[in-house]
Each structure stands twice: as structure tokens, then as C-alpha cells.
Write a structure and sequence with these properties.
Number of helices: 3
Oligomer: single chain
Largest sheet: 5 strands, antiparallel
Radius of gyration: 15 Å
Distance between the termini: 9 Å
Strand content: 35-45%
Helix content: 10-25%
CATH superfamily: Hotdog Thioesterase
CATH topology: Thiol Ester Dehydrase, Chain A
CATH architecture: Roll
Shape: elongated
Number of domains: 1
């Protein structure tokens, strides 16, 4: 079973449109924060991955489904887990919940690239940490 990472987000006025509904692109920002915190919780940072392993993790593709709107002052929980791996990439499934109700779900494919943007092998230490 894949390790699950949890991250809490509060919706601020700046995240919403004039109707108090979260603007659709801001969900991507929430998901990015949750992915970054998942990596940080394992003892890695994006800068350290580049400095010590010569790779960056970048988004290759994103598939997101909006089921219900998030609104001003909602407290959201983002659950992230790895659903698949290859040598150079992995897919993170991310669910956004409000009061345990699913409001959005996304599959984000991340790829490890070197400083020139060419696909590179995921560092073994990171892969082990994500899988355990």
C-alpha cells in the first residue's frame, strides 16, 4: 500500500472569484504545495534534489476533475499518494476533501529531469522513501 501524505489548506479571499468560489487554477497551487510538503516530509527539498542528485521534479501532465466547488474560508484536506512508478517518473494521485467529502481529484505525472531538462533516473533514496 502506498504511503499517504496529508496537507491542510484554508481558502482565503485571494483564492476565490467574486462569488467566493475557488478559481479553478488555484486548485493546482494547492496540489503543488501538498506535493512539495510530501517531499519535504521525507527529508528532501527541491533544491537538495538538484544539488546532491542532479535532478528536478517537474510536472509532465495533469488530469484534474472538479466535483464540487471549494469556497471562501473552507478548510480543505489534500491527500497525496503515489499510484505508479517508472525509472524516470511517477504519478501522484491527489484528492481534495472538505469535511471528508471528495471535491476534486487529480492525477499528476512528475518526471525527474537533469539541469538541461532531459529525463533522468529518479534518485534511489527518493524512490525508496516514497514507496515505504
Amino acid at each position: 500500500m502506498a504511503k499517504k501524505f496529508n496537507f491542510a489548506v484554508k481558502v482565503y479571499y485571494e483564492d476565490t472569484d467574486t462569488g467566493g468560489v475557488v478559481y479553478y487554477a488555484n486548485y493546482l497551487k494547492f496540489l503543488e504545495r501538498a506535493r512539495s510538503e510530501a517531499i519535504y516530509s521525507l527529508g528532501f527539498t527541491n533544491l537538495d534534489l538538484l544539488k546532491y542528485h542532479g535532478v528536478l521534479l517537474i510536472v509532465k501532465s495533469c488530469n484534474i476533475e472538479y466535483k464540487k466547488p471549494a469556497k471562501f474560508e473552507d478548510k480543505l484536506d489534500i491527500v497525496s499518494e503515489i499510484s505508479s512508478f517508472t525509472k524516470t517518473s511517477f504519478v501522484m494521485k491527489q484528492s481534495i476533501l472538505r469535511n471528508n467529502e471528495l471535491i476534486s481529484i487529480a492525477d499528476i505525472q512528475l518526471v525527474a529531469v537533469d539541469k538541461n531538462g532531459k529525463p533522468s533516473k529518479i534518485p534511489e533514496k527518493l524512490k525508496i522513501a516514497l514507496e515505504s
